User: Which sequence fits this backbone?
């Protein structure tokens, strides 16, 4: 069977996350449904990771083993025709049979967008979290510095029963402001469940002045979820890119 | 009474256009409802113009005469709190009693966005028109050249019973491509009903190769709506700016 790599863009608003679940709409479920129609049989899509309910992706990567008499471009066009408006295949290509979207992923970029301006983000409203007051990005950048490198991120893990290692490496955190929009972009070798959202929730607390940048090492060292800030709303988060 | 100038941003998807109509949702209707609550009485909002059902605005301008014991910032914040998510006041300020949003408008900028790429515009899907095939913007730019200047745009007017002058001046038409997204930006001293959408529908026909750029003068001179292209879908159109 051939192995196809798909790059997928989706607006997660309407979905119960990436991962297939019975009786509810999920991204993987929608994609497998259309792939099943294409192959006239059941297919299993392997995603690079799972995104939470309401989280978006510019370029999720997945692979699928299947036999179908179509070129990758025809597969892309077929899928885009039958997928709903809020899911698109931006690229389909045939790859080595050994390519595995999850195991081969080296690093990922996530971007979180929030808005603290005086108006409302009318056109971006599904993709940003509206904050209650303005945030100071200088303080947030100072706090983010402590996150860079290899650390145990257990304090920022949403799964309290996580048995595997909670050590991850963050290569960079870039915090930028454009008018009322503040973006926090994270590049790391992997992220724990809810990790980006908890990191953002914590950085926003620093931005508000409720936490100090200097408290970050202490929060991290505690390995205690209770010490970190709240989980920022899903709608502000977008999986931007996956490196292989 | 004081005169306030409001700058309004809206996603027109859910609305039956700008202008107040009984029993249906309109932008003016929603705004007057919140202003009425603010003033505890009826108020009449004067918009710079009307946008069709489904058309968006980054910066519509309107003015309203009212007496209220609030600063312009407080008016803005009050309105943003009570307006739905898809309408926002980006600025409120007190202006001269003589300021009239429609009569004083000197020129307007509209931007039309379409998509002709191989994927689908997932995040922009409410704000772009998806085309059936790719368009050639060089041909479209050549056609747009003929539109510049003062002309009778009757061929591009959606109101067949228009009794007033159909002469307008277009200062510039800028056509740009970014990946699969093509934008057409029009700056003019005023636009007839559906004029921008008919101009875009015609330019898209040129982009497809179904019309030639050189046919534009003939279409314009005919003063016949039937000679021009179709009215492009409302969702791609956005009122960008109004100059006073």
Assistant:
């Amino acid at each position: 069977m051939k192995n196809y790599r798909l790059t997928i863009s989706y607006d997660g608003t309407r979905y119960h996350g990436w991962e297939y679940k019975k009786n509810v709409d999920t991204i993987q479920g929608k994609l497998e449904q259309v792939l099943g129609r294409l192959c006239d049989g059941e297919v299993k899509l392997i995603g690079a990771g799972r995104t939470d309910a309401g989280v978006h992706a510019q370029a999720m990567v997945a692979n699928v083993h299947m036999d179908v008499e179509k070129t990758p471009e025809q597969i892309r066009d077929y899928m885009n025709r039958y997928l709903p408006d809020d899911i698109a295949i931006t690229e389909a290509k045939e790859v080595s049979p050994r390519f595995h979207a999850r195991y081969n992923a080296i690093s990922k970029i996530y971007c979180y967008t929030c808005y603290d301006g005086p108006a409302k983000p009318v056109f971006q409203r599904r993709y940003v979290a509206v904050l209650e007051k303005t945030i100071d990005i200088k303080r947030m950048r100072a706090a983010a510095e402590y996150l860079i490198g290899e650390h145990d991120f257990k304090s920022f893990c949403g799964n309290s029963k996580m048995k595997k290692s909670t050590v991850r490496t963050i290569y960079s955190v870039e915090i930028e402001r454009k008018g009322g929009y503040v973006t926090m972009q994270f590049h790391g070798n992997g992220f724990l469940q809810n990790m980006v959202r908890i990191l953002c929730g914590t950085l926003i607390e620093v931005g508000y002045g409720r936490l100090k940048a200097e408290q970050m090492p202490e929060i991290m060292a505690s390995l205690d979820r209770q010490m970190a800030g709240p989980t920022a709303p899903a709608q502000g988060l977008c999986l931007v890119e996956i490196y292989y």
In short: Chain A has a mean pLDDT of 96. The beta strands of chain A are 2-10, 45-47, 56-66, 87-95, 107-115, 129-130, 149-152, 167-178, 181-188, 237-243. The radius of gyration of chain A is 19 Å. Helices of chain A lie at 27-39, 72-82, 137-145, 195-208, 216-222.
